[in-house]
DUF1833 domain-containing protein (Mesorhizobium hungaricum), 175 residues
Amino acid sequence: MSRAISLNAARQIDALATDAVAVFLVIIEHIDLEEPLRISSDNAERLSTEPLTYGTRSTYGSIDGTPRPFYFTGMQVIPPDDEEDGEPTATLVLDVLDTDIVGLLTSTTIPATGRIAIVMADTPNLIEFETAGLSLKGANGDWGQVALRLSMKDLYDEPYPATRMSKERFPGLHR
């Protein structure tokens, strides 16, 4: 299945060399967080001087359309695997921002939800690719990093057709 991307992004993908940078924007939401946790893989813009923080400003995930700060942290995105028996699970390895947030995300019975978007650094408000509806399945970490396992609902487990062909619903099939 193909996805529509901007003409500039398509040209940069096909180019032999380019100065364009793809940026991951991650939003993690939890009922116990006051605001969603916004994380960026790009450190091009200084967001504040005290404390010194870098990141990206984007309207992604903003309800009113105002740019919100996404704070930079080192991250590695591991795409979902292709295992037959399990649901597709993506792994997001982050440098630990705050140990309190990691404890909050992993200690409650209500899972956090997440969204991941890819934008180009020069157009942070234009979403090139988005994966929404992710649920935090687990987290483990050491040495200043935490690995968050995010998963979507497995669509292959849904019956097709949506209703079962049972004797009660379709008696003509079971004569």
